[in-house]
């Protein structure tokens, strides 16, 4: 069995025997959601400053763009996880 190192031990492991990306992926996803929400909020505020109708249009468009952005982030992060899972499983197969 592979022992799980602490985050700092895995971070400074120069042999790269433990992946930290799989541990950070949840935090990266939350950061992506927060950034998407902030961008959407600024887009709505900026549109309302410009004009009422632009603001009204941004209230309709911003949630759609937000959901698409979060979907794209999720797909990319899942692809990264799949690549790391393939690497971990390949290591297990190679050890056997």
What is the quaternary state of this protein? single chain
Q: How many helix segments?
A: 3
Domains (count): 1
- Give unreliable regions as ranges: none
Secondary structure category = mainly alpha
Task: Bin the helical content.
Answer: over 70%
First-residue to last-residue Cα separation: 12 Å
Mean pLDDT: 88
Structure in words:
The chain has one domain (24-95). The protein is 82% helix and 0% strand. It is built from three helices and no strands. Helix 2 (21-50) packs antiparallel against helix 3.
Annotate the secondary structure layout.
Blueprint lengths: L6 H5 L9 H30 L1 H44 L1
Helix pairs in contact: 2-3
Defining key terms:
3 helices; 96 residues; elongated; mainly alpha; single chain
Summarize the structure.
The chain is about 80% helix and about 0% strand. The protein has about 100 residues and is mainly α. It has one domain.
């Amino acid at each position: 069995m592979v022992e799980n190192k602490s985050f700092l031990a895995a971070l400074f492991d120069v042999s790269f025997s433990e992946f930290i990306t799989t541990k950070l992926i949840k935090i990266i996803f939350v950061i992506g959601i927060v950034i998407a929400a902030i961008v959407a909020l600024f887009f709505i505020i900026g549109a309302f400053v410009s004009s009422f109708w632009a603001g009204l249009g941004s209230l309709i468009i911003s949630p759609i763009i937000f959901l698409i952005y979060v979907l794209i982030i999720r797909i990319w992060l899942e692809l990264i996880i799949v690549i790391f899972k393939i690497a971990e499983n390949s290591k297990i197969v190679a050890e056997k």
